Every structure is written in structure tokens, then in C-alpha cells.
């Protein structure tokens, strides 16, 4: 016939232990993270905003250029 249906052998107690272990390990990992201070955060934010602005201008320029070329080709 086929494989017999498998039942879940984990109980609620085992699931809560694994969730507790996961949260404890997550807390330990978060303690290892280097959190930026206010000066670093301001600098990083400026870098991100500047990069976004430059990429926006680049995409706009490429889009406008392709649109202009398409108009030239299609109007012939």
C-alpha cells in the first residue's frame, strides 16, 4: 500500500523546552553583537541615505535615456 502515516512524537512540554532553548541562545547571540553608538548610527544612516539618493538618480537617468532612445526609434 504505502507508508503508514507518521504521528508527531513531540509533546507540548518538549516544544516549550526547545522554544526556551532557542530564546536563551538568541539572547546570548544578541549580546555578541556590536551595537553602534549615536555617532556611528548617524554616519551609517547618512551613508545609506546618500547611496539611496545616488541609486535613485542613476535609475532615473538610465530610464530617461532608454525612454528617449525608444521615442527616437519608434518615431522614425
Automatic annotation (TrEMBL):
Keyword Transcription: no
Keyword terms: Cell membrane, Membrane, Protein transport, Translocation, Transmembrane, Transmembrane helix, Transport
Gene: secE
GO cellular component: plasma membrane
Database matches in NCBIfam families: secE_bact
PROSITE patterns per record: SECE_SEC61G (PS01067)
Transmembrane segments: 44-70
Major localization class: membrane
GO molecular function per UniProt: protein transmembrane transporter activity
Membrane topology according to the record: Single-pass membrane protein
Compartment(s) of residence: Cell membrane; Membrane
Protein name per UniProt: Protein translocase subunit SecE
An individual GO BP term: protein targeting
Function according to Swiss-Prot or TrEMBL: Essential subunit of the Sec protein translocation channel SecYEG. Clamps together the 2 halves of SecY. May contact the channel plug during translocation.
Quaternary structure note: Component of the Sec protein translocase complex. Heterotrimer consisting of SecY, SecE and SecG subunits. The heterotrimers can form oligomers, although 1 heterotrimer is thought to be able to translocate proteins. Interacts with the ribosome. Interacts with SecDF, and other proteins may be involved. Interacts with SecA.
Top-rank taxon: Bacteria
Family listed: Belongs to the SecE/SEC61-gamma family.
Pfam families: SecE
